Amino acid sequence: MYNFDFEQPASVEAAVAALQAEDTLPLSGGQTLIPSMKQRLNAPAKLVSLTGIDALKGVSVDGGTLTIGAATTHATVAAEATAYPALAALAGGIGDPAVRNRGTIGGSLANNDPSACYPSAVLGTGATVVTNAREIAADDFFDGVFTTALEEGEIITAVKFPIPEKANYQKFEQPASRFALTGVFVAKTADGVRVAVTGASEEGVFRWTEAEEALSANFTPEAVDGLTASADGLISDLHGTPQYRASLIKTLTKRAVAAA
């Protein structure tokens, strides 16, 4: 590691102001940023920590909406998001205890790793990402691998999840990293069904619209039987071919519906 400046503001306003400095990055849980700095893939001159801002922490429910502060750890989401069991279970399956007690939901979404779990929950639920400047619908937030709609100096402050009637997340994990080799989040609401896939595509998290249409008409695992997820644009690596991941998408979708 190299020398860099570190600042830990106590308010969102102070953090946004500090991030205006040149060559400065925000730091939340640091589960990706710190390793990338050790490898010199990132080399900011200054880090602005968001974990000292109490306003960015906590889980609350208001009517049918669950709101999670951006600096809330995965472990806290797993323990306190009881109003949304599928999301709590997803958070409890991220990484290992060390990762869950340091990593945050805001950091995960801002990083938008193509195999991360939270993006599938946000996209699958049709959640809203709240920043210091605006609110961004899930369908408009994710913009490719490690890329989001966030602008320079903009930070996530909270995520609002409409609590669905039924939901479930199924993950076929890569055992070494515990990231999703493929993961599927299914959520059923009064407006229909959303199916979000992570870990499979070269473009990051995406919705499987054909399955959404079939499941909106008939919310049973059998509704997916006649469908085939396209292998076009899916990841090919030592862990699996695009065709293998396409097969996993269908299998995990059926499992998620059955479990929901």
TrEMBL record:
Top-level taxonomic group: Bacteria
Keyword field contains Flavoprotein: yes
Keywords, alphabetical: FAD, Flavoprotein, Oxidoreductase
Pfam family, one: FAD_binding_5
SUPFAM superfamilies: CO dehydrogenase flavoprotein C-terminal domain-like (SSF55447), FAD-binding/transporter-associated domain-like (SSF56176)
Domain FAD-binding PCMH-type residue range list: 1-166
GO MF entry, a single one: FAD binding
Entry protein name: Carbon monoxide dehydrogenase
Annotated source species: Thalassovita mangrovi
